[in-house]
Design goal:
single chain; five-stranded mixed β-sheet
Length: about 80
Amino acid sequence: MNKTPEPRVGEMSIMDYTGHSRVTWDTGEPGEIATAREVFDSLIAKGYSAFGSKEKAAPKHKLGTFDPTMEELIMVPRTVGG
């Protein structure tokens, strides 16, 4: 039996002044992955930090590059102390 992994849905939560927004992608859809990667790269360029995990319930760790196999990503804007 040759089992291929079933596609999963990834979700990126983007924290911002409105609260947050979401971007989702199907891990089996290259176009959706490309769109999510563009959003991720744009946010990183703006100074956001990325944290993610392969399973929603798992602890998050900091990411430097987009990984479409992550089930959950959280994008946090740079904070300025005062």
